[in-house]
Amino acid sequence: MAAAPAERRLYFEDVQTNVPLETPGMTLTETHAALFGALTSCGPTEPGAIPDLIPLCLSSGLGWRVPQPPLVVLAFMGFEWRFLKPTRVGDTIRSVSTTVAKRSMKDGGVVIEERQILNQDGQVVQSGRLTLLVAKRPPS
Amino acid sequence: MSGEPVVYFEDMKLGEEYTSPGRTVTEADIVIFAGLSGDYNVLHTDAEHMKASLFGERIAHGLLGLSIQQGLLDRVVPGQAVGPLAAVKWKFKGPIKIGDTIHVEARVSAKKEGERAGTGVVTVERRVVNQRGEVVQEGETDHVVARRPA
Question: Which of B112, B14, B61, B94 is nearest to A40 (CA)?
Fold first, then answer.
């Protein structure tokens, strides 16, 4: 059997700064709130409300669906985040991320990403800055 | 928000501490979170790949740990006193592995005026601690809380 082609990946060296990447959209549903509530015991505070942490959590999955190969993330180191506007069932969110800084370390490199989550009206509902540890390209 | 808050800004005491119940993080938690978030990074989903990694096995998504601690603290802070999240500053300090039991230690660390009239902002410092007493996540959250009507 022929070996499967290696999955394309982006390493620290490949990360470009100041290039915004926009994800596809995701419509927030009662199901998201119910699954998240069952998993975490963070219930919605009123009918139709979406728990504050859901858009942030979904943005990490949406980030894998931008038009470029996935980044080899070794660890999520931390983040600072602001919740600017509540979201509700039926809202459609997407996120836009931009690498604003990168710093080479001995093992891997640190990438600072600014991320905004927007709703269907283009309003920023959440935004912040994430710090990721990314692998360097292995010597070939 | 509809409904009267049970606890007002004035009722939250600076320095007040809370300790949550524990919760064992399971493989099912990670699988469900991967499905819900769409984050299928090998760190969380590929047991064979992770055998050769620094961690030696799959680890929970950092944001799963954050979400679980939020739910744990909701169980001990009376009457949803801690209102909607306004901001989070957070550090992921160590892995949460399948079978680890985590709890939250929290403290009201600051109170200040809110931007909107009739509100205040409460800052809560939080540490997520595992069964060995290691702090695996820590940070602070800001919450907008209604002031007691005059």
Answer: B61
Indicate the pTM of the whole model: 0.93
Q: Which residues have CB under 8 Å from A24's CB, separation 6+?
A: A62, A65, A94
Q: How far apart are CA B76 and CA A28, in angstroms?
A: 28
A23, A57, A115: best mutation site toward chain B, by most B Cβ within 10 Å? A57
DSSP for residue B97: B
Task: Please give the angle made by the CA atoms of B3, B9 and B12, to the nearest 5 degrees.
Answer: 115
Q: What would the mean pLDDT of A124-133 be, rounded to a whole number?
A: 98
Token pair belonging to A137: 């390209």
The pLDDT, as a whole number, for residue A140 is 77
Q: Are residues B139 and A128 in contact, defined by beta-carbon separation less than 8 angstroms?
A: no
**Contacts for A65 with CB less than 8 Å, ≥ 6 apart:** A23, A24, B38
For A61, A68, A116, B145, the CA distances from A97, given in Å and listed in that order, are: 13, 13, 7, 30
B1-22 residue pLDDT tens: 445 556 889 988 999 999 999 9
Q: How far apart are the C-alpha atoms of B111 and B12, rounded to whole Å?
A: 9
Q: What are phi and psi of B49, to 5 degrees?
A: -60, -40
Angle between the N-to-C axes of helices B27-37 and B62-74, in degrees from 0 to 180, rounded to the nearest 10: 110
Q: Which amino acid is at B127?
A: R
Task: List, in sequence order, every residue forming a beta bridge with A104; answer none if it has no partner.
Answer: A109
Q: Is B68 exposed, middle or buried (0-12, 13-18, 19+ CB in 10 A)?
A: buried
Residues of A in contact with B85 (CB under 8 A): 52-53, 83
B13 CA: distance to closest CA in chain A (Å): 23
The average pLDDT across A10-22 equals 96
Asked if A111 and A102 count as a contact pair (C-beta separation under 8 A), the reply is yes
Asked if residue B72 lies in contact with residue B21, where contact means CB atoms within 8 angstroms, the answer is yes
